[in-house]
Amino acid sequence: MPKLLLSKAEKTLLPKFQFFYSRGIPRSDLSVVLSSNPTVLRYNLDNSIIPSFNSFKNFTCCDDSEVFLAYKNCSLILSNRFQSVFAPNAALLREIGVPDSNIMTELVGHPRIFILNHDKFRRTVEEVEKLGFNPLKGNFLTALQVLVQISKSTWERKLNVFKEWGWSDEDFVIAFEKFPRCMMLSEHSIIKKMNFFVNTMDWKSSFVVHRPIVLGFSLGKRIIPRYSVLQVLLSKGFIKKPTSAFFLIISEKDFLARFMAPYEDLHLLKLYKEKMSL
Predict the structure, then answer these.
(1) Contacts of the segment 46-51: beta carbons below 8 A, 24+ positions apart
(2) What gap in Å lies between CA 223 and CA 252, rounded to an integer?
(3) When you count CB atoms within 10 A of the terminal residue's CB, does the N or C end of the chain come out lower?
(4) Final residue of a domain: which of 23, 51, 79?
């Protein structure tokens, strides 16, 4: 029996591994992905995997490794069903004006949203349009991705969290248009960050409405360490109190150069690293 199983594996599994190797997929990556998502090993190599792989690659203009990464997020892309499920949803996006380049980028990064039932997909697209998103802009598909992934009940709970901080429906729409991924944060994360912004940093809640990207930053790795550095500089009179979120938004390299390098005697780097390790 073991010989029979080995013989079957050599005939069915080995050619599939060899196909992925031939496309430049590293053995280590292949083993990790297939061990967590082995679905593709059940697909027929000649009738499903190869034509689906090539079709996906040709449509998205991505390289072989990106096709494999997309498979990691959605095993259906290498099945012969993917084209029939994906095509009507992609056609709908084109119909309302979403550029092909945006569709391709989203398809590679988040293929799961394209396998939604077409009627539900259409309704979700209509919801995104009602929120005021422009199909020509990249954040349209980001908002679509968020709405696909979040249930109505979860949406309402998170919306209520923002309202507890004084946001109106209009405030929320403004923030969501600027940073749709704010609704991917957990309720706990939203509460902790808003509490720090309002009660520690003394920002008005409405300040965050117009700069919602700050909600996406790590509280422990970015917000608190940078704020702590600024507090020292303020107490020494080296800077004036910031009137914008600039110090949170700039890159790590720029923050170090602007707010730490000129003040080496204050040992700010030590403070910065201590706060990051909390």
Answers:
(1) 47/80, 48/78, 48/79, 48/80, 49/16, 49/19, 49/78, 50/19, 51/80
(2) 12
(3) N
(4) 79
Task: Assess whether pLDDT exceeds 50 at residue 3.
Answer: no
Instruction: Render pLDDT for 84-111 as a digit per residue (tens, 0 to 9).
Output: 888 899 999 999 999 999 998 898 889 9
Alpha carbon 222 to its chain centroid, in Å, reads 18
pTM higher than 0.70? yes
145 lies in some domain: no
Number of domains in the chain: 2
**Which ranges of 196-278 would DSSP assign to H, the alpha helix?**
205-209, 224-235, 246-249, 252-259, 268-276
What's the pLDDT tens digit per position in 219-243? 999 999 999 999 999 999 999 999 9
75/2 Cα distance (integer angstroms): 29
Six token digits for residue 29:
């990556």
Angle, in degrees to the nearest 10, between helices 252-259 and 224-235: 10
Write down which residue in 79, 110, 128 finishes a domain.
Answer: 79
Cα(96)–Cα(116) distance, integer angstroms: 18
φ, ψ dihedrals at 188, nearest 5°: -60, -45
Range of the domain at 62: 1-79
Q: Would residue 110 count as lying in a domain? A: no
Domain membership flag for residue 247: yes
| CA neighbor of 43 nearest in space, from 21, 7, 70, 19 | 19
241 exposure class (CB count in 10 Å sphere: 0-12, 13-18, 19+):
exposed
